[in-house]
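forwarding from the other thread:

> can someone predict this with zinc ion?

sure thing
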Amino acid sequence: MPGQTLACLARAEEVLGKILSGEMIDDLREEFPAYWGSCLCFLDVPDGASKRLSGLVFGKDPSRVGGLVTVTVDAEQTLLKLNKFPRSPRGIRVFRVWTTASPRPLQGCAWPPATLGAVLRWQHALDKRCERKIEKSVRDSFVAGYERVFCLVTAPRSSYGFSAALPNCRLGGRTARRRFLDRRVMLKSRIQRFTPWRVDDAYVAQRSNPGGATLGGIRIVLVGCGTIGGYLADLLTKSGAGGQGGELSLVDNDVLLPQNIGRHRLGFNNVLRNKAEGLAEELLRGYPTAKIIACPVDAMEMSFRGIDLVVDATGEEGLSHLLARKLSGRHQIPSLTVWIEGPGTAVRGLLRDAGNDACPRCLRGEGGGSIYPVVLGELPHRFAGEGCESLYVPFAATTSVHAACLGAEMALAWANRKSTPKLRTRILEPGFTKGAEDFDPPRASDCSACAT
Ligand SMILES: [Zn+2]
């Protein structure tokens, strides 16, 4: 132990020496949030938003546990996301300044800054233009009668904020106003430092795939809210479906029965309830600002006009063929079909977003067999169900999750214009080998489903 302590001290001495000699600047920039402050601030501001920012303060003191400041372009939407917090936030004046300087602690500046004067001195060394903007905005806020302001500084790759308490300019009349406008008084205003955490829809969906497209802003219809569709709806929502002006419609006219629960996304709290309605309510609990629409109807009665992508997760081949026919024609609608093969032996996905792509019916050869067999050799046949329960194919919930994962991956690949290969197979049961490699199957010219 003493050896480790001495080694730590030696390392600390080395780091301190490098900092004092102006080295390790990049490290200081990277670790800036740790140096800046820990007051909680949620930032519900999408990239490129030009709307006026507003602020909400939850709790008496935002620096205490349970306290929170939120900066937003849409207070109504943000309040929906924060419905677990008490519903009585106070408003706070927010202004935003941009800087080209990446923030980092500086030698010769009081650190961390505790007053407005200390912040301005620090900004003076980093970016004089930013310093002037902050000072002007604070003065303007005071003259406008605000007693508290929040400043959000947007820097390259990061942002940080602070709030400052201002005296009431209406109290004390001209004398108080003059005193504050005396720079020496203003500089003594105490501040609280905030490190913002982004909560806007685009960031939440894109964080796992930086730079990639999400399913936000897209109109998606998911047909089938059964064992595959339930998990798939969840994954599509995590990729942004229903957000940023898009929508996710859930279609199913079936009700959840007790025997479904063992491999369904929903549980006993939704038994005997329509699956689409139960699923929509469940998802909206976690994504309250998403546009998720329950459609408890027969998919064949739906209109798909204006829809960007139809996802068929029914796992029913007959219905997939009927749906393929409905989506074909002069204005073919992109579609994705996912299903389970055998008793959980494999899962498959087929994307169709061009006129010469195969539909699920095109994969069937003469006599009904698959042209592109899922496995080498025969698929096993297993059934369960006794007494008054009808026969069913037994597979675990994990199989449905695999199918949902494949569907979500293919939907996201389509959104990123990387739809190839359009027929994908994942073998799940040990001992089986894929019967056909993943590729783009062509449309069958005599297909009874997609022939136009
Ligand atoms: Zn076809």
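The chain has two domains: 27-199, 205-427. thats all i got for now
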